[in-house]
Amino acid sequence: AVKFFLYTLVGSLLMLIAILWLSFAAEAQGIGFTTDLMKLRLVGPAIPLDIQMWLFLAFALSFMIKVPLFPLHTWLPDAHVQAPTAGSVILAGVLLKMGTYGLIRFNLELFPQTSAALAGPISVLAVIGIIYGALVAMVQTDVKKLVAYSSVSHLGFVVLGIFSLTVEGVQGAVIQMVNHGISTGALFLCVGVLYDRRHTREISDYGGITNVMPKFAVIFAIAMFASVGLPGLNGFVGEYLTLLGAFRSPFLNDWTYAIVSSSGVIFAAVYLLWMYQRVMFGKNENIENHHLRDLTKMEYWQLVPLVILMVWLGVAPKTFMDYSEESVKHVVGQVEHYMWGTDGTHAH
Fold first, then answer.
1. Given Cys at both, which of 4, 13, 18, 139 links 58, Cβ 3.0 to 4.6 Å?
2. Dist. CA 59–CA 271, nearest whole Å
3. pLDDT digit string (tens) for 13-58?
4. How many CA atoms does the CB half-sphere of 111 hold within 13 Å?
5. Residues 6+ apart with CB under 8 A from 205
């Protein structure tokens, strides 16, 4: 908790300084002292590029801590392990998305030129985060820590999508933010169900749970496959679009980002399937696992709506993507306008 507090405090202070700087810059430009985002969007691009870079970094650092992006991620696994199940679900479903939302809403809109200039270095960090999170997840013996490190990997995809600065990439990042909240939230609820019965999160304490908890086994499997990115479930669409965006991005201009980060999808399948196999299959040798009760009605109805959303978003993602499409086109168009004097359709 102290680690999270200190990280967030430093990031928030930097952002506060940057907001005040922008507000005074607005006054100097004759707009008047303001914190109105619509007005500040005119101020940011007019600031000299060297100062713009520092302001961008102050905002970005604050949001990257929240995401969390490698190497600012060290608070997340500890926070998840210390938090109760409900805390972990809120952390995965809501709090982490404040970081990625902030990057789109503030960094891309206020500093379009700097966003384009720093797209490469930030994407490198995102790709490192994808691979690093996946590799560390593979060696975890604690189920909750494994899911926590999977978040570092999944949110690397979101940041990569955002800084591809393409419509596909940013749209993929937005839908992946929603998907991650649903599937990882469901995984944390499933871990909570197991912990509630056995009071241990060590993978080695389980095995053969499918025989005693068949309903739970099915829901846990769906959540796990959604997190892996199985086509037909929600995780696939976001990862596909973010990789497509990185592949096509004129700002990254290199296929390496997409190719290297796509290995994160394979690693995700490895660590999640391996964890599921050791917890749910095999011999039920531990005597304490012989009489575990299956899902209660309350637990069942907590998880079923999430399963419905996973399938719905996997089969018909457009129903959700339509809501963000115009906003995404506007943000990407603004970056293109400041870089090339075009909004993607015609020259100005």
1. 18
2. 33
3. 888 888 888 888 888 777 777 777 677 777 777 777 788 888 888 8
4. 28
5. 198, 286, 288, 289
pTM given for the model: 0.86
In one letter, which amino acid is 54?
W
Look at the block and give the residue holding tokens 């600031």.
47
Burial class (CB in 10 A: 0-12, 13-18, 19+), 86: exposed
Beta strand extents in the chain (DSSP E only): none
Closest CA to 331 of 115, 105, 122: 105
Distance CA 336, CA 330 (A): 10
- Quick check: 130 and 160 in contact, CB under 8 A? yes
Question: 347: which strand partners?
Answer: 342
Dump pLDDT digits (tens) for 60-109: 888 888 888 888 788 878 777 777 888 888 878 888 888 899 888 888 88
The Cβ-side half-sphere exposure at 252, using a 13 Å CA radius, reads: 29
Q: What share of the chain is helix, strand, coil (3-state, %, to 5)?
A: 80, 0, 20
Distances (CA, A) of 327 to 168, 321, 346: 13, 11, 19
